# Entry
Amino acid sequence: MSAEDLEKYETEMELQLYREYRDVVGIFKYVVETDRRFYLANHVDLKVRSEGGETYFEVTMSDAWVWDMYRPARFVKNVKVVTFKDVNVEELAKSDFDVPKDDGPFGGGR
# Structure
């Protein structure tokens, strides 16, 4: 496989992942970003822990979807992430679910 073939494959996988994200985002309530992954989830519990002078984050999610193009199954029943890096949790507003309609190159549904 050439470098060009590999790049084309990865581009196609990313586009497929984006399309899947667009299709499923409306069924989730939260967006969770960690240093390693991006998740959509319906239940999120974030705890700040301290041990031995170190502070870390423990994130537990259920009914989740993982943004990872190399993962064969992106829907996950339960996820637990422990990290020393920042964690961002956002509740999605209903307006965030609206995906622009593709009216073609001229707009207006022509």
Observations:
- The first helix runs from residue 3 to 24.
- Residues 3-95 form one domain.
